[in-house]
Amino acid sequence: MTLRGTTAVVGVAESDLGQVAPGLTPLDLAGQATVRALADAGLKKSDVDGLFTASSYYPMSGMDTAEYLGIRPKYVDGSTIGGSSFVSHLLHAAAAIDAGLISTALIVYGSTQRSDGGRLVSPSKPNPYEAPYRARHPISMYAMATARHMHQYGTTREQLADVAVAARRWAQLNPVAFARDPLTREDVLAARMISDPLTKLDCCLVTDGGGAVVLTSAERARDRPGQPVFLLGAGEATSHRSISAMPDLTVTAAAESGGRAFAMAGLGPQDVDVVELYDAFTINPVLFLEDLGFCAKGEGGEFVSEGRIAPGGELPVNTNGGGLSYCHPGMYGIFTIIEAVRQLRGECGARQVQDADVALAHGNGGVLSSQVTAIFGTESAL
What we know:
The chain is 32% helix and 18% strand.
């Protein structure tokens, strides 16, 4: 069974981003994004019969969001696997549409993490095996993976810094990106050390923000006013919950999720024109580019260095500026979808990748724990 080309994204939108007006709640931002995405799709709230959402603020996020939006969906999915949840929801929604359970899915998220003082709300209890070491969650976990990759493959801090610099160069082309001031490799290396070997500028932003994606059947999508972007393939995988249970600190489950997505799409890394990765830390793109097959294991550091993933480089990666420079409101995965769709629709202005027909969006959750890959294509890529 394949879902290749059976569904298409017909609407995407962000809420207000950065630091939003005082008093706004995560649901307010989810509402903003929903109204804008439905307008983009030329649809009404009453057309939505499937709701997919996740939140660290609302344990029963599906019910809270449906109540706030004033909708009564017949299918609700509130599965939470961290920041990759929304890419996972995309796969679940496509399956539900293909099965005839729903006709139109809304995938939505909102967070006011910056307005809340940067506090990451989490209902999870500390891991009793890790808590005695007083690690800074989640950065110390990513720092461990970074240190191991550096030790095992010779990856350098300079190469990691180039990831942040590339993200900033893309952000400077994005008028709604949070951080747009110039950034150099030296700036990243000289920034305050947070968890060795990661400095402050190796870490993602802390912002407010929300996003929404509207998905429907391919047949119905062709009747919408805008250009549909088809879901060609998707795959998900989870390897652990706690970093102490990660089988190999240098190999993520993206090796599995990516393989499944490419198999469904009938494509390979060489066919992808633009890549949107969950870059919570500078090590993430290095690991994911390796595990998704864009380069060999251990070659990620060299692959991202010297502007190769920056504007004008060999592979456009995180063209909106990513979580490092564009926005990162707690969970970032939905924004990889939004940017991938906009690139394929040719709506990205100064940062537009020319002649893009295939885009990859990849979500990451927890501490390199859950990985979900989605591959999109234009009509010509079907």
